[in-house]
Structures are given as structure tokens and as C-alpha cells.
Amino acid sequence: MTNDQTASIAWRDGKIPVSTQFDDPYFSLGNGLEETRHVFLAGNALPARLCDGFQVAELGFGTGLNMLALALIWQGPGVVRFTSFEAFPMTAADIATALEAFPEAAAIAKPFLTAWETGERRFRLGQIEVEVKIGDARETLADWDGQADAWFLDGFSPAKNPELWGEELMREVGRHTAKGGTFATYTAAGHVRQKLTDAGFAVERTPGFGRKRHMSQGAKP
Question: Which of 57, 91, 112, 156 to pair with 121, CA 20 to 30 A apart?
């Protein structure tokens, strides 16, 4: 079993997990799966770019919803790698409860939940090879030897969780991005866009999901 420091969760309306550490919900109060598809998949021009050996990386694993959305659009041929960085992993039971809101994602989640319950942080989900690195991303990302083709920047709100949007961490994101690689995030905060620009990305502010007017996406030339 794992010795991870688990997330502290409260439930809004009995189905939306809210981090009590950061006072922020784990997914959109509207439709979290559709937001994932709009922000992280479309924002990185996926699935059109996916191919064997493609590397997706993520800040903020949460419920695993982004990983599941990726698995829903990639059945091969070939394997896509998914590496996520998470400081406070949720328990398998809390994740399973959260995913009840998304039957399409929950339907393919069993291999993930089974592995997660036993403390496995490296596992296979269909044609996705997953590794979740537990710990402070400011340390674990610096030690990662990978290069991402696409980033999902999905930490809690920059106002609630500023450490995950700091200048040095955004520079590490840039350093761990392949030439032509991309990022997408739900936040359009000016200071985040500036840090990503400084990290080597050409950054755009684009239409957000639902009530969120704007999001950010970009590419590394």
C-alpha cells in the first residue's frame, strides 16, 4: 500500500468533490467532462495529433478525469504515454464517487481504480501508459526525464494554489516540452500567461468553457 498524503475532500451537493486544502472544486460545476474536452483535448488539438509514443503530461491529477477523457479518444494503434504530477492524491473511493457524475468516464475506469486502490501509481488504461508522480511538482517535475508533446495545466485556481503556477515551475514546464509541443489550461490569468511566455511558449487567450469567458493555450516553437 502507498504512504501518499491523501487529499482532504468535502462534497458539494453530494457529488462534486471540493479540496478543503485549497477550497476549490476538482472539476467544473457545470459539466467537468465537457470542460476537459474543450480545454485540454481541443486546446491541445487532440485527438488529431495523437500517435504511438506521444507524451501527454499534466499538473494536477485530481480525479483522473483528464486521463479518462484521453483514453476515450485514443484506442490505438500504438500507445500514448500520460505522466501526471500530484501532491495530494485522492483515495480510490473518493475518485469512484466523483466519477459517478460522468458515466462515460466511469465505464472505463475500473482498471485505474483497481490499480489505485492497491497503491499502484504506474498502470495501463487501454492504450494509455500512465504514471502519476506523487509529491511537490516543484521537485518531481525537475527530476523527470521526459519531454511532453502536450501539457494539461490543471492545478487548482492560481488564486488558491499559487505554488503550482509559479515562475520556476512554469519554466520547468517549458524545459520539459518537446519542440512544437503545446499546453492548454482553463485559466486566463495574465500573470500565468506571462510566465508561460517567459518559459518559451507562444501564448494565446482563447474562448473558455461555459461561464468562463477565456482560457489559455500555446505552443513551443
Answer: 156
